[in-house]
Amino acid sequence: MLGLAHYSVAAQSAPELHWYRGNTHTHTVNSDGDTAPDGVVRWYRENGYQFLFVTDHEFATDVAPLNALFGAEGRFLVLPGQEITQWGEDPARSAAHVNSLFTTRVIWPVGERRCTGSGCGAHAPAAMPLAETFRANIAAVRAQNGIAQVNHPNYRWSVRPEDLDEIPDGTLLEIWNGLGSVNDLGGSDGNGDVRPSAEGYWDYLLSRGKVVWGVGSDDSHNAEGRGHAWIVVRASELTPAAIRAGIERGDFYASTGVTLTDIAASDAEFAVTIEPARSGARYTTRFIGQDGKVLAEAAGTSPRYRFTGNETYVRAAITDSNGKHAWTQPVFRDGRGQTMAPGAPAPR
C-alpha cells in the first residue's frame, strides 16, 4: 500500500474535496445512554456535526427513520453501528470493547451472553486471552463489511499493547475518548505496572508495521458527554460511501478542538495548516515517528517537517495554548499505508 507522502497525480485531479466532522461512538436509551435516539441525533445535527454513528451496546439502531427526520443532503447524515461489549471473567483483564461501524446486524461478543441493567454483552472465560477476543470480534465486524474501532484501550487497565498485535490493517484505534474516566493518558500504579497513553498504544502498533488510524470520539451517554472529541473526514461528498472511503484510506484527522484546513505531503515534506482560533490561541506541533519519538517540534499555524529518509512513519500531534488537540494520521515512508488526497477547504 502507498502512503500519504506518495499520493498520485490521479488524486490531484479528483473531484473537489471537503471536510466533514463526525462522531464514531454514541449511545442512546437503546443501551446505557439517557436520551432517545432522536434527541441524540438532534443535538449533533444542531452543534456543527455533519455525520454521526449510533453505536449502542448490542443493539442495531435503524438509522433510516433518523435520516428521514434529520438527514439533509450535503449537510447531515446518520450512520449505523454498534459497540461490541466484550467482558472477561478475569478481573484484571475484564474489558475489550470494539465498535462496529457501518453494520446493521447485532454482533454478539465472545462468551456467555448477559444483560445487566441497561446494557448487554458477553463474558469470555478467564483463560481466554483478550487478543483472541479482539481477533474474533473484529473478524465478525469484517464479515458484515464493517470497519472495526478498538475503544478506550486503558479502560479498567484491561488491555495491554501486545493484545492488539494481531489486529488487521485498517482498524481504527480510539486515541482520545471524551468520557474523561477511561485513562486516556495512561499511567503507573507505582508497583511496576506502567501503561502507555492511548496515543502510545497507537505508536506501539505503528512501530510494528501496522496500518492503524487514530480516532477521537465522545463515547457519549448524556448531554454532558457530547462534543468533546471527533474526527473530520476529507471526502468528495457527504454520503455513506464517501465517508467510508475517507475513513478507510485514513483521510481524516482527530480533534478535541483544533481545526485543520489542510494536511498534505510530498516526497520532501509533510505540511499541516491550522485554522487560527478566534481566542488567539497559539499552537505547538510535534512530528512523531518510530517508537513515539518526537522528530521535530514547530510553533505557529503552518508547521512543516522535512523528511530525512530514515523515517518509517511520521504523524503530527497539535496542541494549542488552551489544551485542545488534533492528531493527523501517519505518513508512511516504508511502503505501507494508503493514499490520501491533497488539500480541501475546511467545513463552515
Automatic annotation (TrEMBL):
Gene3D superfamilies reported for this sequence: Metal-dependent hydrolases (3.20.20.140)
GO MF entries: 5'-3' DNA exonuclease activity; 5'-3' RNA exonuclease activity
InterPro entries, alphabetized: PHP_domain, Pol/histidinol_Pase-like
PANTHER family: EXONUCLEASE, POLYMERASE_HISTIDINOL PHOSPHATASE N-TERMINAL DOMAIN-CONTAINING PROTEIN
Descriptive protein name: Polymerase/histidinol phosphatase N-terminal domain-containing protein
